[in-house]
Amino acid sequence: MKRKILLLTSILVFLFSRAYSYQNIINIPDSLKKYTYEDLVNKFVKNHTNKELSIIYIQTLLQKGKNENNSNQTAYGYWRLGSIYSHYDDSNLAHKYLDSCIDLSRKKNLNHILARSYFTKADLYNISNEYRKELDFFLKAEKYYNKSNTEMGYLLSYNIGKLKYKLGEYEDALNLFKKVQSYEVKKGAYTKDKRQYLNTLYYLANAYSSNNLRDSTSIVIDEAYIIAKSLKDSTYITFTFLEGGNQFYKGNYQEAQDSLHKAIPYLEKNNIYTELFMGYYFLGSIHQLKNQQSLAIKYYKKVDSLFVKYKLAIPDIRGTYENLIQYSKRENNILDQLHYTKQLLLMDSLVSEEYKYYSKKFYKDYDTPKLINEKEFLIKKLSKENTNYEYINYILYLLIIIILIISISIYRKQLLYKKRFKK
Predict the structure, then answer these.
(1) pLDDT value at position 30?
(2) Tens of pLDDT along 26-40?
(3) Please, are residues 65 and 78 in contact by the beta-carbon 8 Å criterion?
(4) Residue 417, number of CB atoms within 10 A of its CB
(5) Left (φ > 0), alpha (ψ -120 to 50) or beta: where does 313 sit?
């Protein structure tokens, strides 16, 4: 009975608190006043999967901190509420609570909580694909976290490494992932937490590859493959795919093709689109290098089909559209040429938006003004051809009408002659 009363009271507190802005003071009911900060944190931990109860307990902790002028607990309450709302995709409230935490933590020199807030803000910017802001906040968190907290340092290096890689800063990314791998080896992650260690090896292999260190890439992939095989599931296929890409860049096209053909059915079945984009692009490029034009175009068109459907911004596959445009030009297929030109412009737009700081490394055989001019030229050409077709159609219609009139006239005359003959 007491538990039901407490739950009802708590729900009322929650509804009451939502009626006010996040900054307003709420009245803590007697049923919750007796709890210490530690009690409230423990209750939050026990009920962390329940959004409403989580908010109630932390909101109570926050108000208790305000009432007692306890800056540390108030800042913790702000941060924890920001984290909860972030988890439940309420970014507006999450940003507000985290900003309040940052302001208070700065004033009171609460660096440990300040670092946590910056870390959570970075995660929020990841959700909205604002990668430069995400990186900036991870770097701020790195500045303020407690250096004795090696786990926090490791998480920061891991996340900053992923962002550096995504933004095209490959050398920095490689150094960070080497540091992360070293940390994980020391704590025995390769046996205790194999999946996390494989995630690190995945990014480390990609970082080596992007720095053109092909042999080092293969060494990391071989290690990952052995560990992945021990999991007795399909994880190892991811590294089969990576080795296919690595062999492609090494110029070992048959080995690359063999690995890619082993991996692609798994990627297709599990809808792993980013790798599928790259897999089709690699196979198209391999067939093109072997002068197998029809097979190359087959795989390039698979890339186009995926892009039309999912609109993923993947800078590395830009060559697909450059090749398809050239192919449609040779085939004198203006409709396809216009389609691929529009798609390339769309990809450039998406990449420019999502990888704002990647553009300096984004090589373009077709720059945007040239593409726009070419698109306009193709539209005009198609319009002119359509106009010509219309004229031809009008002439054909007119000829058909004339022929019909003549045919009807001849038919009538024949009928008339037959009547006269019978008479």
Answers:
(1) 75
(2) 566 678 888 999 999
(3) no
(4) 10
(5) beta
